[in-house]
Design a protein that fits this description.
Layout (H helix, E strand, L loop, with lengths): L2 E13 L5 E13 L3 E5 L6 H8 L7 E6 L9 E4 L11 H5 L10 H14 L15 H13 L5 E5 L7 H18 L2 E5 L3 H7 L2 E5 L6 E6 L14 H14 L1
Helix pairs in contact: 3-4, 6-7
The protein binds adenosine-5'-diphosphate and magnesium ion (MG).
Length: about 250
Amino acid sequence: MTTFLAANGITKVYDTAQGGTVTALDDVSFEIADREIIALIGPSGCGKSTLLRMIAGLDTAFTGELSWDVPPKRGQDIGFVFQEPALLPWRSVLRNVGLGLEGKGNSKSEIKRRSLELIELVGLSDFAESYPSELSGGMRQRVAIARALAYDPRILLMDEPFGALDAITRDSLQDELLKIWERTSKTIVIVTHSVEEAAYLADRVVVLSARPGRIRAVHTVPLSRERDSSIRETPEFARFTGVLRGELE
Ligand SMILES: Nc1ncnc2c1ncn2[C@@H]1O[C@H](COP(=O)(O)OP(=O)(O)O)[C@@H](O)[C@H]1O
Ligand SMILES: [Mg+2]
């Protein structure tokens, strides 16, 4: 596997409103391989969102370096999915998904064709003309994923994307994400609070310590890449999630 992105000695110090400083990340280094799914876990406030924002190019005020195999173009190579899907309420599903394709020289019919393809990919074909207020939380998050994939980014960054969903919806969206990953060959970095979610989805799990976030461990997930929910019942799954849980304490 080739290295897609290497984080080398990333350190982030925030200035606080009170005139002090907070070290959010301290000397964080790890690598992401092409097509890999990396789960990033760690206690609240350890710098996970900060790290994703840096990878997305939304925060450039840090020391250390991010080395890409090919430097990414903003708004083209990086897709971002947040915990709360920021959909435009006055736009249909179709037009929310197409948002990132507008104003880039794509014709209306191209945008529509591509949007419908992605809506199909996330299983919402019957809802293309619906509005966000008519959808469940899980469906809205599917729209956000389709939108993030619209311009065919090379990497998909997801910040606790399923954290606000009920357990059943969450499990089904995890399967949906694996299916999308198989069909689209994206590199994915997903931040999660759930050790089960990390184990179920990832090739490798990066564990950060409490603030300041430092690398606590990097694990290769000891499970076959063929995942379905039966894997959650195996002793290997229980053992591995137990290890992760121990590292979060
Ligand atoms: N804009 C900011 N100004 C000052 N401190 C911040 C800012 N953003 C985040 N922090 C601090 O940096 C630390 C890491 O934040 P964050 O990346 O959001 O953590 P996580 O996503 O792991 O919960 C937290 O302690 C937070 O209080
Ligand atoms: Mg966060």
